[in-house]
Amino acid sequence: MTRRYAAFLFDMDGTLINSIPSAVRAWTAWARRHGIDVAELMAVMHGVRAIETIRRFAPPGVDPQAEFEALLQAEIDDVADVVAIDGAAAFLASLPPERWAIVTSAPLTLAEVRLRAAGVAPPAVMVTADDVARGKPAPDCFLLAAERLGVSPRDCLIWEDAPAGIAAGEAAGADVMVVTATHHATLATPHGSVVDYAALSVEVADDGRLAVRAT
To answer: Which CATH number applies to 7-19+81-214?
Structure first.
């Protein structure tokens, strides 16, 4: 890529870390407990705030908030196989700390536990499900992260893996890079894509702007 950016905004699950097995276990158990089609749920839950998915699928009479809290605890308790995407930790460590943020649909408590399990140091700016009223695919989370970094969202490169997050990045007016490390099928996208960060490096200009380079 030739363009330089004021900041990078990273989704977390599937983009910086692989927490898919943990999430699948928790959500499969939840779906089966309520007689919900697992495949239908899995097709749309990635990248979306849990509470919104629960409200969409929960049967009548179920308390969405209570279900969310129980599901959240199940995910917090199940992080033994959460790992960083190849090269992600080193790539993040090469970035100026004031030039990047994590923007995740996970609540802060779960985000912190998963990052710690994967050995990824959290940034100074992290926007989570707790910070916005509308989750992805709405652009609110990315707009807030750009604001907290003091940059324009149109001057950011957003790193994403899921359709909801990609749509949120587009709605924010940013460029998007798709990370495919956890994909099991080809995702049709007009955006650039990388499998992981192992063959990438960052070039930091004198003014602090960032460019992605292949090593």
So the answer is: 3.40.50.1000
